[in-house]
Design a protein that fits this description.
41% of the residues lie in helices and 26% in strands. It is an alpha+beta fold and 827 residues long. Strands 23-24-26-27-28-29-30-31 form an eight-stranded mixed barrel, surrounded by four helices. Strands 2-1-5-4-3 form a five-stranded antiparallel beta sheet. Helix 18 packs across helix 19 and helix 24 runs parallel beside helix 26.
Length: 827
């Protein structure tokens, strides 16, 4: 009996060879030791042999992997009459090395003892199916890897809910992948934003309106702000399929690059709808992807640019460098700092600044480079505007001091190389403050703009006109052969400024004082040229204005002398070489001493006594007047407090205050400290200011004066009658004392025609309730005239010369005008 007859149950499952082979694609029979005894032509062809050649070979040698071999050995041993049929899937390798997938059904043939004597196997080719499945898995995994490597959150949703989120989105929202597929996403959105977000999502699905908005998240670690964009993706028939979107964490300013690749429809939707330009190139530098944003930034249609080299976007001279960069990028993984702007070439030839981020991706086994470009033209324009504001005057748009100093140094260096000179004109407008105060600041600004335009109209294109602030303008003239070029330019500036200006509906006449400095060596600096021109300008202004002065050797000596004086004055402050002298102020009718005026003197270490006329102007210009004035104020307050304690209980003190102390120092604090340290009663102190000081900045002067008067201190106007608009401004200032300038007092000896002026001033002050003090009284006639005019107080050599504190005679009174008093009063 044959083996087949011995096992009728299995025999019924085995059709005849011709029948079986007609039902399946592959048929092979082998013994329990895996020796092939029969194979049909299809199986033989798959293995690369004829059917006869396969007989006697082992079936195991045609299996691709060791696991498959071990499994077929194990399963074959497990065949038994109770379980005679097995199904399995294995990979088979042909003689040409090709791998294929097959599903095999094996049936065992057994003898009477139940031992397998033959295995028949019928197979079906699964290779096409498995190839497609593997490709899909690879594509899906590639998409996931690309999305997870993007620096922004990525999501896909359809009407049923969330389909996909990447790792960055999960980090932003503080959720796992599984949690993002649920309603947990909305739970993290700020309640105030949920309604807006849901409405925008509905509009997106219904109308295809792109979504671009900001939402707030409440996540562990604190709230975050996300920039969310989304687009609707449709199929070929326009039917909505899904929404693809991105979320960028603006809280930490995460770099806005996106790792993108080609191939999948979802990935392509992200690329095509991204807000940033995205360009993908292969290893040869050929462009393979070019999204809509790239078309906007670079000006090319995708159809005309795909297939062209990446260095199309750089200048021809830079093409070799761009090509080398592409090669190095793929060779070494070179990256670009996304915060470093680079310039790319637009189709129309202009250069577009972009912030670029590059990353490498693998698409279908091919290395690709994805570049994300963001147009930063507007940002750079804003930065340039900020830089312009930092280097230019806001009112006139002229270069400011900082920029001009740089250009002066560059001009000097160029002139040294070319053998030419550099001229600097320092112009200060005459009487500008009068215009500014009378017509208002807006009119003053209008005048300054008009002046700047006129100056530019007479300069060369190579000259630089700058504004130093206030009413000061500077002109830098290069390529001069000598100082005459600067003189000619100064003449043109003076001439063009003499024509009337139309300002705020009025006709205004203006002039300038100009200082000229010239340099034809490499040893001069911007600071030196400016200082020299400034000194020359002051010479021109002191000469009456509307003219120019040239800085020369004589002026240099004058400057050197003033610098030495400045240095000596600084040392004097440090070494206590300054001393205070006092001149008494008396009551004219009886000659009694009512107060003293503090006057500074400089006694050098060699004993020489220097009068204030020799150094006060330098102290004013250098700012040393502030510490100098503070010393005088403190010392004089201390001395007068001492005299008052000694019995002169009603003795007053007058101290001169400079413009710098009033407007730029901390006068209120200095006065408060001097009074506190000395114990002097505040009403005993009178601070004297000149009219010109008050008119430098009227509003600021009034503010400081009022704060000083709030301490109880009196305010006096010194040298009244020598400034501008005395009567106009007198009522505006909160003053207590008016001191008639010595020039008016001296004129009393000149004849009766001079007396009415002094009389009018005294009457004016009395009508305003002010105490009047006449300065420079040197003769008995002057004193008597002042008494007749109603002036009660005076000071001068007629009464007592200034002297150190130890020499001042507070009890001594000259012959009083008692007889004159009897004549006036009749008593």
């Amino acid at each position: 009996m044959s083996d087949r007859a011995a096992n009728p149950s299995t025999a019924r499952l085995r059709p005849e060879p011709s029948e079986r082979e007609a039902q399946v694609a592959l048929v092979v029979r082998y013994l329990p030791d895996f020796t092939i005894v029969h194979a049909n032509e299809a199986y033989a062809a798959l293995m690369g042999f004829s059917a006869e050649q396969l007989v006697g070979r082992s079936i195991l040698e045609f299996l691709e992997s060791d696991p498959d071999r071990e499994r077929i050995i194990s399963d074959t041993r497990a065949l038994c009459p109770e379980d005679p049929i097995q199904t399995m899937e294995v990979q088979t390798i042909g003689t040409d090395g090709s791998i294929s997938w097959h599903r095999w059904t094996r049936v065992g043939v057994f003898d009477r003892d139940g031992n397998a004597v033959l295995i028949e196997a019928a197979g079906t080719d699964l290779t096409p199916v498995r190839t497609i499945e593997n490709a899909l898995r690879e594509s899906e995994e590639r998409f996931r890897l690309l999305a997870d490597s993007a620096p922004v959150g990525v999501f896909l949703i359809d009407e049923s809910g969330v389909l996909f989120t990447n790792a960055e989105l999960q980090r932003q929202w503080g959720l796992t992948f599984e949690e993002t597929l649920s309603e947990a996403l909305l739970d993290r959105v700020d309640p105030d934003d949920v309604g807006h977000l849901q409405e925008a999502r509905s509009t997106l699905w219904r109308e295809g309106e792109p979504l671009d908005t900001y939402i707030r998240l409440r996540v562990p670690g604190g709230p975050r702000n996300l920039h969310l964009t989304a687009q609707l993706a449709t199929d070929a028939d326009g039917v909505p399929r899904f929404v693809v979107g991105t979320t960028q964490d603006e809280t930490d300013r995460i770099a806005d690059q996106q790792q993108l690749a080609e191939s999948e429809e979802r990935f392509r939707a992200i690329v095509e709808n991204a807000a940033d330009a995205i360009v993908t190139v292969d290893e040869s530098g050929t462009i393979t992807e070019f999204n809509a944003a790239a078309e906007q930034v670079l000006g090319y249609d995708s159809d005309e640019i795909i297939g062209r080299p990446f260095w199309t976007f750089v200048r021809e001279k830079d093409s070799p460098g761009a090509e080398l960069f592409i090669r190095e990028f793929f060779a070494s993984g070179l990256t670009i700092d996304p915060d470093s702007p680079v310039k790319v070439l637009h189709k129309d030839g202009r250069e577009v600044p972009v912030k670029i981020a590059m990353s490498a991706v693998t698409v279908k086994g091919q290395n690709m480079l994805t570049a994300v470009l963001r147009d930063v033209s507007e940002r750079l324009a804003f930065e340039q505007e900020l830089e312009h504001q930092a280097t230019h005057d806001a009112l006139t748009s002229l270069p400011n001091r900082a920029l001009l100093n740089e250009q002066i140094d560059l001009a000097v260096a160029r002139g040294h190389r070319l053998g030419t000179g550099v001229g600097l004109l320092f112009a200060d407008l005459d009487r500008f403050k009068l215009v500014n105060d009378s017509l208002g600041h807006n009119a003053g600004d209008e005048l300054l703009v008009a002046v700047s335009k006129r100056i530019r109209s007479v300069t060369r294109p190579t000259d630089t006109v700058a504004r130093f602030g206030g009413d000061e303008f500077v002109v830098l003239a290069e390529d001069l052969t000598d100082v005459r070029g600067g003189v000619a330019l100064a003449d043109r500036v003076l001439d063009v400024l003499r024509a009337p200006f139309a300002v705020a509906g009025d006709e205004v006449y203006m002039s300038a004082s100009i200082g000229i400095a010239y340099c034809d060596t490499a040893n001069c600096s911007a600071e030196q040229l400016t200082r020299d021109a400034d000194m020359a300008m002051y010479r021109a202004k002191s000469a009456g204005g509307d003219k120019f002065e040239i800085f020369d050797a004589e002026m240099a000596a004058w400057v050197a002398e003033r610098r030495a004086l400045e240095l000596g004055l600084r040392h004097a402050l440090d070494r206590d070489e300054l001393e205070v002298h006092y001149q008494t102020m008396v009551r004219l009718l009886d000659g009694s001493v009512e107060g003293v005026e503090a006057l500074v003197r400089w006694r050098r270490d060699d004993g020489e006594l220097i009068m204030p006329a020799s150094f006060i102007s330098v102290a004013e210009e250098t700012g040393l007047i502030v510490p100098l004035g503070r010393q005088v104020l403190r010392e004089s307050c201390r001395q007068v407090a001492e005299w008052r304690t000694a019995g002169h209980v009603d003795l007053g003190l007058a101290v001169n205050i400079s413009g710098r102390q009033l407007l730029y120092g901390d006068l209120v604090r200095d006065v408060r400290c001097a009074l506190a340290d000395s114990g002097l009663d505040p009403p005993a102190l009178c601070l004297e200011l000149t009219e010109s000081v008050l008119l430098d900045d009227v509003d600021a002067a009034i503010d400081t004066i009022e704060r000083v008067r709030a301490l109880g201190v009196r305010i006096g106007i010194d040298d009244f009658g020598t400034g501008y608009s005395s009567l106009t401004y007198l009522r505006r200032f909160p003053v207590d004392v008016l001191k008639i300038d010595r020039a008016f007092v001296a004129e009393l000896d000149g004849g009766a025609e001079r007396a009415p002026i002094v009389s009018m001033v005294i009457a004016l002050a009395s009508s305003l309730g002010l105490t009047v003090v006449a300065e420079g009284v040197e003769t008995e006639f002057q004193r008597d005239q002042l008494v007749r005019f109603g002036c009660d107080h005076g000071q001068g050599y007629f009464f007592q010369r200034p002297a150190p504190a130890g020499e001042v005679e507070l009890d001594e009174s000259p012959q009083p005008a008692l007889g004159l008093r009897r004549q006036i009063t009749g008593s």
